[in-house]
Amino acid sequence: MAQPTDSEFVTIVSDDGFEFIIPRSTAYVSETLRIPLSSTNYPEGRDGKFVLKDFSGVIVEKICEYLCYNEKHKDQVNVPDMDIPPELCLELLMAADFLNT
Amino acid sequence: MELRSALTDYLASNNISAQQIRDDWDRRQAEAQRQPDQTEQEPSNPPEESRSPSVLESPEDPVKKRKRQQAIAKIKNSKEFAKRKARFSGDYDDEEDDDFLALKIHEEKNRPQPGQLANCEICDKRFTVTPYSKAGPNGGLLCVDCSKKQKADEKKPPAKKRAPGIGRRQNQANLLDGLTPHGTQSLLETCIKKVADYIHDIEDFGDLPPSLLLRLGQILSRRRAVTSRTLDLFLRPQYTSIDLFDCAKLGTDDYHKILASMPRLTRVNLRFTTPMKDQIFHYMMERDMEIKDLHLDGPNLVTDACWRQLFIKLGHRFLSVKLWNLDSAFDNETARVMFLQCPNLQRLKLKFLHKIDNDMLEGISTLKSLQHLSLRFLDETETKTEPLLQIMSSIGPQLETLSLEEFQSADDRLLQHIHDHCRRLTKLRLTLNSTFTDKGLAAFFTGWSNPALTYVDLNSLRDVDMTNPDGPEEPIGLASEGFVALMEHSGSKVQHLNIASCRHVSYKAFEQVFAEGKIYPNLKYLDISFSTVVDDYLAQCIFRCCPALQRLIVFACFKIRDVHIPREVALIGTVGATIKIDGITQTETI
Predict the structure, then answer these.
(1) How does this chain assemble (chain A) (predicted)?
(2) How far apart are CA B492 and CA B490, in angstroms?
């Protein structure tokens, strides 16, 4: 079932099937997400759904948390860094590199 | 006094930092000291008599009441009372307030001393007063249990009130780290920092890409956390390059480990390599390693003989050699061997090498592949213009970057030669010179057939004469004419421009360069420190003309007081200025 591509929300899916629905604008912080999601030439753009194949639900949850955190604080000054559990930081680092954020 | 110093000593010797306890104790003790004449008059004054204000208000026998009134009358005549009264504003001086104040002083004076018994102000329990007893909300003392509760209550609201301004130090530190003061950091940077925080708990990086390894290496080096233990994380047999910016904590064996576990290395970039010795170079030579890029900072234990051997054995493969801070080895002869044995060198950087001087310069002319040249001698080394002219006329046409720092006495002839011979330069750094003239620099940039430069660093081209701060009539160094000519020539492409300490660029020249309608579309970094003429108006002009600007450095531009800066710009070096970023005003607190 194809959703309209201009929906206000997009779905980010983890490797193990967890789905996270976040505002489209937050996802667009990441080039890797923005390009496919904003074009109807890609299945992601048509479905409004992006599958992060290499990352588990825990990591994808953290990514989505960051995307929202980033959106929330984008106009503020002296924003503290988001808290990242040390055990996730290496995997999250790889994810951040992949997402280019 | 005895007791007080004994207590202080005791606290100090046990390293107890209990300012609160000490203050309470001091105050009570001081009051007890002021009291003796009174206690002499009332030798049998039992502590419970004044255990709390509520008790004082209750009916009591006339003798006690009279005594109390006497005491209060006495207090009213005392110096302490006058002082306290003076501390309140002089608005009121009626009888009632006087009475109240006197009563308060009386209560404080009658507070029990350590060792005596008292009743707790809150739970009314009887307890022994100690120096640690806390004062309750109404001035009486509290028992141990209530003190604890009170303390817990006090701890709860530690939320520090942040001043409305921003801390200058933290702010400047962030700016220098390249963080613009709004929005969040990228997830990547946040994660890298976190990884660096927990580096000692990490056993393996997994398959991190080289670009991230490089960034992690930089952050760990900056935190001085590169040790034998963390080095292992960076050793990847399949990778061909290693970059470590702080090797000061590595031992000689660690260098062996690097070379042994990364046999395919072609790029070795190690800084602060004090323990590197001849044997490391011998190892490279024995294995005939395919090193192409050798960047070493401070390998001072390597001997001249070993350097020469290295160049003879491996020099033919070298594409770039960058060396910093060598004081006990590497002389002109070694340099000569290098030029002879490394004919394919494309990049050469020699900075702060103590034993080389003008004599080695002519060798550079023989490097027919050289594209990038960077030289800086020690400041006491005598420099001459002629060898530089020779370099320019022989290899000038192929040079893409040129950096000549601190050639104090190089004169306009050098500029003329660069003008005549260089056609492919993209980066030019000529700094710390007090011989070039403004006319020479203007002529240099006017009609130069070299395309526009992207990186220009001309900092500290100025006359240095303490007795004549305005400089001579004919300006020396980069002044108005030169600056205008520079921007005419390179304005369209320049990304990085440093004209710090070029003090004689006039207000008019800045106005002309950053006039309305002029656009420098690529300029990202601009350093105009010590250009004291720049004021708020010129700063706004700069922001208008440089849409891509990311950093503006303005140390000692004291006329910048109140500026509105675009979002992406980090303004570095202001003192006490009011900075507005998209409507958010930040006033620096110093």
Answers:
(1) Component of the SCF (SKP1-CUL1-F-box protein) E3 ubiquitin ligase complexes.
(2) 6
